[in-house]
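Quick question about two entries, pasted in order.
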Amino acid sequence: MHTFHLTGALARALVLTLAVLAAGAWAQAPSKHLAPGFVHLDNGEKVLLMPVDVELFSLSAGGVPEPKADWTAAATGFMQQALVDKLKATGLQVQPGDEALGDEFAEQVGLHAAVARSIALHHSMGGGWALPTKAGLLDWSFGDAMQPLARKTGARRAIFVWVRDSYASAERKAAMVLMAMAGIGLTGGIQYGYASLVDLESGRVLWFNQLTRGSGDLRESEPAKESMGALLTGFPAAK
């Protein structure tokens, strides 16, 4: 049996080589937010921002969500502006879609919501819900369903945002206090949403993020900016 001994110089060289290889492998590890092979957008690239799909609710004492049209209207404006500002800051040209565009392509907007829920469950949450065929990669597509939107707008890529937010009413807050005294916890409002960057020609989802938390307020401008900033976490900067 032969025993090999490394000199100090050789040992240091070996350690350095292994460290470089490990760093390279780490750097090449795919981001959970990005589709395989997609790294960044081009600086100055024009991206369509679809009208946000948002609805706000008030929770009754019993926890029943009641739609609030005035809150939703205010949130729509705050969110859309916050998204435009945030995306422009990444180096993109943003083409905001109006309400008429959202109505005309309501089917695509609804399809995005359905696919986004699937991505959130099987990719973002993963674990026992992960799909073995995806191998942990962001590998989802709308097929050719988004091509009519590309032909209509001339856009190559688009951003879709879906958000639902709820707030405890005064009655709900009172119930929460009473139940807490009895040792029973009741939840307040929940803010959750999805955002996707989609290649309209191929249908591929290039970037995705979700937001789920018990804080945030979309009814006012500044808090809405914070929420949209959180939702765009991991969005690829233009280069």
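Here is the second entry:
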Amino acid sequence: MFSILRPFLFNIDPETAHDLAIKSLKFNPLPSKMFEVEDEQMLKIHLLGKNFPNPIGLAAGFDKSAEAYNSLLRLGFGYVEVGTITPLKQFGNPKPRVFRLKDDYALINRLGFNNDGIETIKNRIKSDGKKGILGVNIGPNKETKDQKNDFCLGLKNFFDIADYITVNISSPNTEGLRDFHDQEKLKDLLLALNKIKKENKTDISLLLKVSPDIEDNHISEIVDVATNNDIAAIILTNTTNVNRDNLKSEFKKEKGGLSGEPLQQISTNMIKKFYKQLNGKIPIIGVGGVNSGKSAYEKIIAGASLLQLYTGFIYRGPSTAKDIKKELIQILKAEGINNIKEAIGKDV
């Protein structure tokens, strides 16, 4: 069905197509059994105190306001991350702000954390419940006077609802956000968040989402702060606002975060670098250009324990998770691997 609809969807504005997808997913009548694959138990993994049915997750950015996450879980994803959620509802940046780079199998977006805000989204999740593992990605409002406080509000509101919370310091579309990659500023933020955890007697897993555009000398600093401040996993990576030179599309000069295939090797290289320095202390979630079993396996052997995708889902449609699971199992069997855990970091 998607292959029939795709030419139509790709002929309309990307954001309109996305809104249509969210609306249709809300009424998803397809049974989850349709998206299961043979020998899927090979992909089970225990991480963050949770049993993930498979490592293929949907990244934050697709279901920004937690409107369709249960339907997305039924499409065969091992988990879904919603957001980025800010304290107050915000429209985001002026349109147009999403661009399809079809020749590059990529997207550029400068959405700017458009979402319904904490209160509405919190009530929505409470009302809809969870039919699988749900991560909540938090960030600050554009006009806030205190970004750190906005992160604190996100944690206070979702620690008892989410399965884990991602601290998003890496979007290129919110001014000043990437400043939190600075060692002292990051330490200050994580101290504040851990204080809230302690006060509320919660052991919710805090994840840190990192930019692909950091210099190599910052890796050890981030690793040091993360390992000393109770970060449960590091997500590598967010979108890049550079790396445009080899793109073919007419939209390549558009401002915003580039995702999809051009990010594939960049994020995989970053995973390898972090994996070496983390030395098993903290797991890695690999994101960036995951669109096949092969690209998924490359990130796992580079050191990722879980994966996330977004742009691959846009290009491949509702069967994406199922197809990747099937391809990944074939690779594991060919390599003589019984469970995905055995492949983590195999190439490093």
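Reply: The chain has one domain: 2-343. The first strand starts at residue 45 and ends at 47. Hope that helps.
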